[in-house]
Amino acid sequence: MFKRKILLSLIIASLTASAAHAASSGNSVLAFLQLPVGARYIGAGSAGAAIAGDGAAMYWNPSLIGKDGKNYIEFMHSVYLEDMFYDYAAFTYKLSANNAIGVSVQYFHFGNFSYIDDSGNKTDDANLYDVALTLGYAKKILGFGIGASARVIRSKIVNDVNALAFDAAISAPELFDNKLLLAAVVSNAGFEIKYDAQAERLPTEFRFGFGYRIAKSFLLSADAILNADGAYAAAGLEYELRFLQTSALFLRAGYTTIYDAQDLKGFSAGFGLEYNSFLINYAFVPMGDLGNTHRLSLSYFWKTL
């Protein structure tokens, strides 16, 4: 356990160092903004750009906020490694038949670490974290969903850094008897920020989403992702078993090349339970030699229109 903690501490230290020198290496900072949210979508390969209609739409595609006509309160907790964790909370509200708004918070906690001076003596404790607050809006025009959001970001790693980022998205009308879903999203676009006097770029990402309802109980989703690190793909399948009128069981599995490109396992799996207006979703994501990670999402939904 001690050696494992030392290894993770070195990983965090390397992340901190890379944040200070990202400009020379070409890497972007604030990478926590690219960590997926919503156990439903994570369990299905992290492919949610075309199908996310709940509180996680604030992350995946702001044009889908309120698409299913429901309001959502959603929470997600992700257990990473040792004392690192990632939390997400969102509230979306349907203003009218064609308008919806939302707000969300992302928080990544790196753990508590100690500063060491040149003599090897402990000088101070450090609580390292990244946090982002997002406001979003969606409007339906001629069957198309149009969405945008603004994100205020604060990072406390190398030093205290504040940033502003924007998302924009469009979703096509559902085709072939509402079976085919298509969407395009650009996320985390914005200006360069200063990290330890160095100019750094935000982790801007382009995502093209596809969804297809193969049968009444099967939903296929796939995303193509392009960012500064390269091009990736994600795909997943969800099976829905509905019993009674207000209850359902969901089973999911998927794969993404994003983790695979980092020598981690790309597979994921999960399940969900719906009862009345409550949803609970769980996702399991193996991280190779670093261990396994777990995501748990809780949602409450209701209609006002």
SS element count, helices? 5
CATH class: Mainly Beta
Quaternary structure: single chain
CATH superfamily: monomeric porin ompg
What percentage of residues falls in helices of 4 or more residues? 10-25%
Order of helices and strands: HHHHEEEEEEEEEEEEEHEEE
- The whole-angstrom Rg is 20 Å
Q: Which class of secondary structure composition applies to the elements? A: mainly beta
The main β sheet shows up as: 14 strands, antiparallel, barrel
Q: What would the CATH topology be?
A: Porin
> What does the average pLDDT come to?
86
Which strands sit side by side, in order, in the main sheet? 1-2-3-4-5-6-7-10-11-12-13-14-15-16
Structure description:
- This protein has 305 residues and is mainly beta.
- The protein has a 14-stranded antiparallel barrel.
- The protein has 5 helices and 16 strands.
- 12% of the residues lie in helices and 57% in strands.
- It starts with a helix and ends with a strand.
- It is globular.
